[in-house]
From TrEMBL:
ATP binds at residues 219-228, 281-288. It comes from Ectopseudomonas composti. InterPro entries: Fido (IPR003812), Fido-like_dom_sf (IPR036597), Fido_containing (IPR040198). Keywords: ATP-binding, Nucleotide-binding. One of its GO terms (molecular function) is ATP binding. SUPFAM superfamilies: Fic-like. The active site is at residue 277. PROSITE patterns: FIDO. This is Fic family protein. Residues 185-342 form the Fido domain. The keyword ATP-binding applies. It comes from the Bacteria.
């Protein structure tokens, strides 16, 4: 549980001048929205950093007064209505900068020219698309290991357990968000997203695509303590419609006074769905998918390969607290947005690293292809498949998943794989009704081609 802020003193410096004038200088140093390291700390953490001997109510009131001068109203949520406010922190500004520099559709197209073509980068970075679906499900409790989940998605096999169904559902939800990026947000789209993601897992638990109608849904922490009671089910669809109106409004007109960068807006939408909790279960997955949907809508296409849930999964307590900090401090969204910004900065860094490693591996691999004489014998599709196999991003290949990843016909995919076998680069074995292909160990390839 977190430590809630103390009650605010209406005129803190008047009280300070009367009760402890000797500490005025120390209180003045606290009169800033951020600490000296640029952090926007909640009282839960700030209380340990206050100078000894200072009254905490007065200290918190001084800090809140400084913040209130900079906070701006951005959206209203809940019933009764609560006005949510925010200010831009250094982390949020850095996340915006990184997003604009590295994740636009134009940036992704430039990356594609460095690799070869769009389909190639999609295959080579496919793991990152899968990572978000897997991690988002694991964040919600799916016990399936990442290795098994990868096999499930790559081989497109039928899920065997509820956890595997959850991962496959999340993968479908992410793809649905991408395909729906040109639509406006409506309550029907929110319901469709939920249905695509949870249908067939445990319908009696999830009620796919159906908004909750009772007030028996709460959010608990790991110890079973109730940490959030969503707004009442009565009026839920009306409130969601208002949220949709806000999302569909133009906040990117720089000449107006309500400019909100799409990254910040998508993060607010993420929070709003988690706060309203419109479904009996699966709300976190829907909230994160809608974050991606809004980024896709604003042409930040590289977010298809940026997995925020992988990092959220490594810090689930802080993720939960970012919600609690906002709700416990007069709906100050800054806590949640700042936490998300720090996660996004790291996720973009991972994406850039994956791309740079892919580019490096391709360059080294092409040298091998030229020197061995293989380059002229392989098609472009075979080179991509071989590169993916060499990088270890996929261990096994079927004609079906190659067809899906490279956007070619089944016969073309099958021919490409069999050609790799003929060139002594791949081996194949029958598993059930399909042929499964895998790369021959590198040492054996080099040995066979050096003869």
């Amino acid at each position: 549980m977190i430590k809630y802020p103390p009650e605010l003193v209406p005129n803190p410096f008047l009280s300070i001048s009367k009760t402890c004038p000797e500490h005025v200088g120390e209180f003045l140093e606290l009169s800033n929205a951020l600490d000296q390291r640029g952090r926007y700390l909640h009282y839960d953490k700030l209380r340990f950093r206050l100078p000894a001997g200072l009254d905490h109510s007065l200290a918190w009131s001084v800090i809140k007064a400084a913040r209130n001068r900079q906070l701006s109203d951005v959206i209203s949520l809940g019933e009764p209505i609560k006005v949510c406010r925010m200010l831009l922190t250094p982390a949020m500004q850095m996340a915006i900068s990184e997003t604009d520099r590295h994740t636009t559709t134009a940036a992704l197209e430039w990356m594609s020219t460095k690799i070869g073509e769009q389909k190639h980068i999609e295959y080579l970075l496919k793991d990152l698309v899968e990572d978000e679906a897997i991690s988002s499900s694991q964040l919600e409790g799916a016990a399936t290991t990442t290795k098994v989940a990868k096999d499930l998605l790559k081989r497109q096999r039928t899920p065997r357990t509820p956890d595997e169904k959850m991962i496959l559902g999340n993968y479908r939800m992410m793809n649905f968000a991408w395909k729906s990026r040109d639509r406006e947000l409506t309550i029907d789209l929110i319901a469709e997203l939920h249905q695509v993601g949870v249908e067939g897992i445990d319908d009696d638990r999830y009620y796919p695509g159906a908004f909750r109608v009772n007030d028996d849904v709460v959010v608990e922490d790991g110890d079973g303590n109730i940490v959030h009671t969503p707004p009442p089910a009565a009026g839920l669809e009306r409130r969601l419609s208002k949220l949709c109106e806000w999302v569909n409004s133009n906040h990117t007109d720089i000449s107006s006074n309500n400019y909100i960068h799409p990254l910040i807006k998508a993060s607010i939408l993420h929070f709003a769905i988690g706060y309203e909790h419109p479904f009996r279960d699966g709300n976190g997955r829907v909230a994160r998918s809608l974050f991606y949907w809004l980024m896709f809508k604003h042409e930040f296409a590289a977010f298809r390969y940026i997995a925020i849930s992988t990092l959220l999964k490594s810090a689930p307590a802080q993720y939960g607290k970012s919600y609690l900090y906002t709700e416990s401090d007069q709906m100050d969204l800054t806590y949640f947005l700042d936490f998300q910004a720090r996660i996004i900065i790291r996720a973009i860094s991972e994406f850039k690293k994956a791309y740079e490693n892919t580019l490096k591996d391709m360059t080294e691999f092409n040298v091998f292809l030229y020197e061995s004489g293989l380059y002229g014998k392989l098609s472009d599709k075979q080179k991509v498949i071989l590169q993916v196999a060499k990088s270890g991003r996929a261990r096994e290949f079927t004609a079906t998943n190659v067809q899906d990843n490279l956007g070619c016909s089944y016969n073309t995919a099958s021919s490409a794989l069999n050609g790799l076998v003929e060139n002594k680069l791949f081996q194949k074995q029958r598993q059930g009704r399909e042929w499964v292909f895998s790369m021959i160990p590198a040492k054996e390839i080099i040995k066979s081609w050096s003869k």
